[in-house]
Structures are given as C-alpha cells and as structure tokens.
Amino acid sequence: MSICDFDCKIVDMIDLSLADPQDGAPQRFKDELRANLENPRFDFYPNKIGEPELQEAIAIHYSQEYKVSLDFDTNICITAGGWQALTVCLQAMGQAGDVVAYIEPVFHGIPKIIKVVGMKPYPLPMKAILGSDADLEKTFQFLSGAIFLLNSPHNPTGTIVSPKQLRAIAQAAQTYNVKVVSDFVFKDIYEDQQPRSYLEYDSTALEVCSFSKTFRMSGWRCGYIIGRGLYIKRVLQLRKNLDSGVPSAIQLAIVPLVYEKTEVAEFRCRIANRRKFFVNGLKELGFRVSLPTDGIGTNLVWTALSSRMSSSQEAVQLLDSVGVKALPGLACGALGEGHLRFSLNVNQTLLQKALERIAHVFS
Questions:
Q1: pTM exceeds 0.85, yes or no
Q2: Other CB atoms closer than 10 Å to residue 209's CB: what's the count?
Q3: Rounded distance, CA 296 to CA 18, Å?
Q4: 8 A C-beta contact, residue 312 and residue 336
Q5: Do 162 and 294 form a contact (C-beta atoms < 8 A)?
Q6: At 168, phi and psi to the nearest 5?
Q7: DSSP H/E element including 305
Q8: Alpha helix (H) ranges present in 125-216?
Q9: What is the distance between the alpha carbons of residues 207 and 29, in angstroms, rounded to a whole number?
Q10: Are strands 206-210 and 179-183 parallel, antiparallel or unpaired?
Q11: Does position 10 have pLDDT exceeding 60, yes or no?
C-alpha cells in the first residue's frame, strides 16, 4: 500500500514531537488554585524570589530525597519555569562572550538560551563527559573557566548520569574551575534508577528544576533554581529585577503537591509502561532503539533511523504524511542527525495508532 493509498484525509494528527505532557495536571492542583482565587491576598504582587511556603516545601523535599540541606529563603529562587531559570543561571555565572558547553544531542532550546544571553554554545559528544576518566579530564581541562550545562535525565536520549559519573564531573569541575549548571527538570520521571541531584557532589553549582514535568503542568510556568554558593546570591539579585514574580496563587497551589508527591509514582509507572510498549513496536518496524544501561529517564524515546532514510528531516516528513509528528534528530544538533525523538505523552491507544501509521512508511 502506498502512502497516498493509506489515507489522504488524516486530520487527527498524533503529535509525538513535544515533551509537553497531555495527561493533565493533578486535580488537587486545580482545586487548590480555584480556592486560592477567592483569597484577596492573591490580588497583590507576589514575592519576587518566591513565596516562603513553596520555598520551604522544596527545601524539605531536597533534604528527604537527596540529603541536600538548603536554607529556604537564601538558597531557593522560584522562576517562571525551567527556561527562565536556565537563562538566569547563565547570567549569574558568567557574562557575554563566555563559553557554555553541553552534551549534544541536546534539547533544542539550550543553544537558543545560550545565544540570547550573549554567550557561545559549545556542543560536546556524550563520550567527552560520560566516556572514560581520561576523556572527562581532557575535556574539563580544555573547558577551564567556562560553564558546563549538565542535563540528567538527559533530553533527548533519556540517559541518567550515575552517581559515580556525577562525582567525577564535580571533581574535574573543581580541579579546572568549570562552573556547572545542572538541568534537573526530568528528575521525577525515571524507571529503575532514581536520578541524583548534582548538588550532592558540588556545593558551588546551581540546579534548575521545573514542576512542568513532575506534575504535568507546563502551562502554569513554575520552576526553581537552588544553590548553596556564591552564584545563588547573584541569581536572587537578578530575579528581583527581572519581573514581578510567579503569581502567588499558582505557587501556593503547588505546595501540597510537593509534600504529598501527588500522582508522581503513578505517572512514572504510566510512562514506563508506554516506553516498553512503544519501543517494542518501533523495534519490530526496524528502528534501532538502544536504551541506556545505567538508567533511563524522561518521557521521551530516542531512536536511530534505518539505513533506508537519508535524513531525520526526510523521516519526519514521511511520518507527517500519515498523521504522526516526531522531532527530527537534527533539531537536537548536528550530532543528533540520523535519529528521531518521540514523546510518550499520549495514551497507549494513541501510541498503538501511531505505530500502525508508522508501519505504512517504515515496515
């Protein structure tokens, strides 16, 4: 059957190109937010660096999960999501013209953020950081004085950086004066191995997180920066002069979710089941899906193309013709070419339908 014979009238596009959760935020959040809207307190400007109740909840969470001690009013800054948080971190750590290194393939927003603050993106292959000890030593010696943006669980590959590797990165960063920003936004979406906070190994770093992935609430734009050294002081100063802060009603509606870990385990299990189902289906169609052996995280699937496809863009166009959207690997940098990224943010029924459509162009 040709592509045209398949169905030229497809209108129900299945979008697997975005990491934007489609499962919906917990009802608890919506109920809390609705109640907050009736409180006159929330008609006033919020605290620019964060409401104390949310800061304290985050501090307790980090103490329990990672044994990282934080002073809630001086070590935590609430932001309008992870994108803003990363921007502020880079501004606090460096200045225009500085080099910012990262592992490629990479979340396609990272190079944009680096360029916006006037710094220079410097992609590195994964083996330069997660290969041998000699590779890491050589890389950080070369990066002396620069900023390294660490992302674990890694978007798009799902790789979780092990505690041993985190410790080695922290030691190399200290030896060669490399400033580290940890992008930890997928920290609660994993299978067997819980990701560790980089702050467990490096007290000078900044770490960024967002509630978007944990609680499936991307549209409400709330995240945070934490740190215990010099740079968090600069972050707080920048944040005070950036905007008027995240609405208090949103921040306070998140507080009980952090304490109760509302629906976090259930969503994690849901993603794991979807990954197993979808990866098995892709493999049956000839895709080369190699999952990291040291732990897999995120709600994404990263797969190599078959040799029949000349480019990831060609593959995306073919998939689009049968009603499935995927992210081309090239969008994640030159080292991402030859791959596709799929998200797992639709239910298994839609994933099954997507596999059936993919079969018409790849089987």
A1: yes
A2: 25
A3: 18
A4: yes
A5: yes
A6: -65, -40
A7: none
A8: 126-130, 133-142, 163-176, 211-214
A9: 24
A10: parallel
A11: no
Q: Which amino acid is at 56?
A: E
Q: Which two tokens stand for residue 20?
A: 């934007």
Amino acid 292 reads: P
Q: How many CA within 13 A on the CB side of residue 209? A: 25
Q: Which two tokens stand for residue 225?
A: 């920066």
For residues 124 and 116, give the distance between their C-alpha atoms in angstroms, rounded to a whole number. Answer: 20
Q: How far is CA 262 from CA 61, 98, 339, in A?
A: 13, 40, 34
**Band of residue 4 on the pLDDT scale cut at 50, 70, 90:** very low
Q: What distance in Å separates the CA atoms of residue 274 and residue 156, rounded to the nearest whole number? A: 16
Q: What tokens appear for 289 in the block?
A: 């899906």
Residue 98 CA to residue 147 CA, distance in Å, equals 8
What order of strands is seen across the sheet that includes strand 223-227? 76-79, 223-227, 206-210, 179-183, 147-151, 99-104, 120-125
Residue type, 181: V
Q: Tell me the DSSP string of 40-98.
A: GGGGSPPPTT--HHHHHHHHHHHHHHH-----TTTSEEEESHHHHHHHHHHHHH--TT-
User: Residue for token digits 């409401």?
Assistant: 51
CA 41 to chain centroid, in Å, comes to 33
Structure token digits, residue 233: 């002081």
Query: Is the pLDDT higher at 292 or at 325?
Result: 325
